[in-house]
């Protein structure tokens, strides 16, 4: 007999390195900065930063911290954005009450666009609140 899989078990989660890379690239592009500019500020090679942004390399925590600093991004914002994107993929609502400027935070912008989305079949929608 085959065990019954819930809708959540049928989904595959994205690799964290790809998610983090796309968030970093989006932030860099939003600032209209080049790979070279950010790589120099973070003291990593342009090629390595490009690989990180494309999700091909799994950066160390030191490299992530350096790239975040170069982008003027707090590590908690990077992790919070990744959390919100993963939660939204599962149909969960995430409201970040810690955001200093909610209009700049990707999680809040994304949530506004998807807050009405129904929970996947067979699942109850869940709200996650991030507060200080």
UniProtKB/TrEMBL annotation:
It comes from the Bacteria. Residues 24-78 form the HTH cro/C1-type domain. Keywords: DNA-binding. Pfam families: HTH_3. SMART domains: HTH_XRE. The keyword DNA-binding applies. The keyword tRNA processing does not apply. GO terms for cellular component: cytosol. Gene3D superfamilies: lambda repressor-like DNA-binding domains. One of its GO terms (molecular function) is DNA binding. This is HTH cro/C1-type domain-containing protein. It comes from Cellulomonas xylanilytica.
């Amino acid at each position: 007999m085959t065990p019954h899989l819930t809708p959540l078990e049928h989904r595959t989660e994205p690799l964290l390195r790809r998610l983090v890379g796309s968030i970093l690239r989006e932030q860099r592009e939003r600032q209209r900065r080049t790979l070279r500019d950010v790589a120099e500020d973070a003291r990593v090679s342009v090629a390595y930063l490009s690989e990180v942004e494309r999700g091909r390399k799994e950066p160390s925590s030191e490299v992530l911290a350096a790239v975040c600093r170069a982008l003027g991004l707090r590590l908690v914002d990077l992790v919070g954005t990744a959390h919100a994107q993963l939660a939204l993929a599962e149909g969960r609502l995430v409201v970040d009450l810690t955001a200093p400027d909610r209009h700049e935070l990707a999680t809040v912008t994304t949530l506004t666009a998807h807050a009405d989305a129904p929970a996947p079949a067979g699942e109850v929608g869940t709200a996650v609140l991030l507060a200080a």
